[in-house]
Specification:
Elements: E1 3-12, E2 15-25, H1 41-49, E3 56-61, E4 64-68, E5 73-74, H2 97-107, H3 114-124
Antiparallel strand pairs: 1-2, 1-3, 3-4, 4-5
Helix pairs in contact: 2-3
The chain binds adenosine-5'-diphosphate and magnesium ion.
Length: about 130
């Protein structure tokens, strides 16, 4: 999936955090946002995920517009179909490792062969219970 940002800006109050930014992230590519603390990396990622709303501009996933200030489009995060690993992980401390992995699958009603899917992730992470 290609991600395209066009003319994105974002301020928090008086503070301009993202100056006009246009960026294309190619399909099946690995992209790194590099910059000093506070330069806006997380804010940019959160806008792509739909967790923050840009002030202006457009965000497209392939040909699908998920945000457009002009066209008044703002697809909510749960309908964007993206994965997002937070800096502080946001795991559920009261759940087992198994239940943390199963949580997203259950939420997406993707529970066919749940046990196998969870154990495949455990294998990938080299976690053996
Ligand atoms: N919800 C918010 N309210 C006010 N200011 C914010 C908010 N989120 C981020 N900021 C400010 O925006 C700037 C960019 O933050 P951030 O995107 O987290 O930077 P980075 O991830 O590059 O360290 C920082 O000055 C930060 O304090
Ligand atoms: Mg950050």
């Amino acid at each position: 999936m290609k991600i395209t940002l066009t003319g994105i800006t974002k301020s928090f109050g008086e503070k301009k955090v993202i100056l006009t930014t246009s960026l294309t992230i190619g399909s099946v590519s690995f992209t790194t946002l590099l910059g000093p603390s506070g330069c806006g990396k997380t804010t940019l990622l959160r806008m792509i995920a739909g967790l923050e709303t840009p002030d202006t501009g457009e965000i497209c996933f392939d040909d699908r517009t998920v945000f457009s200030s002009e066209k008044r489009i703002n697809v909510p995060p749960e309908k964007r179909g993206l994965g997002f690993v937070f800096q502080d992980f946001a795991l559920w401390p009261h759940m087992s490792v198994y239940e943390n992995v199963a949580f997203g699958l259950r939420a997406a009603h993707n529970t066919r062969n749940l046990d196998e899917k969870v154990r495949n992730v455990h294998r990938l992470l080299r976690f053996y219970d």
